[in-house]
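Supplementary notes for students who missed Thursday's class. We covered one full example, reproduced here. Read the sequence, then the structure, then the short commentary at the end.
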Amino acid sequence: MRLVLASASPRRRELLAQIGLVPDRIIPPEIDETPYRTELPRLYAQRIARTKCAAIDEPDSFVLAADTVVAVGRRILPKAETEAHARDCLDLLSGRRHHVLTCVVVRSPSGVVRERVCDSTVIFGRLTPNQIAAYLASGEWQGKAGGYAIQGLAAAHIRAMAGSYSNVVGLPLFETAQLLRGLGFPLA
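Structure (token representation):
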């Protein structure tokens, strides 16, 4: 059975490899990921993951799509594209609790679609200006939701976490495996 990953994320490919999955094709969908003005983080993650899955026309394959959102309250933090974005995110996250939500959507070759949302809580320690400057200088924040990568240097600033670690990296592996198995994908 063929598996198509609807994502350009190298982290998602690495995470899938952890559970023995190598996608047959990787097709990053070209969609508008702009949040609606009053859209809540969970609903945004669901909408984007569903849209990514629907954008892939591979009828004889399982299609796996996901979207990860870092949220402080009702506020969706951006994927940091500039150092200023990353600094704003880190300033906001410093000493605070936030949520990382990932919606995973799987479509079977027969067209059945299932989804799950995983919600993890992450608490940053208070960051000093020097710690923020050092993290920004690393460049690790580039393209990361919320301006950080838990699997890298930012781990030194995470005071506590509850939920799925792989979710915070970018793909909740337990939920993903459950969805695939439930739709008949051969996964040990």
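Commentary. Residues 2-182 form a domain with the Maf protein fold (CATH 3.90.950.10). The chain has a mean pLDDT of 96. If anything here is unclear, bring it to office hours.
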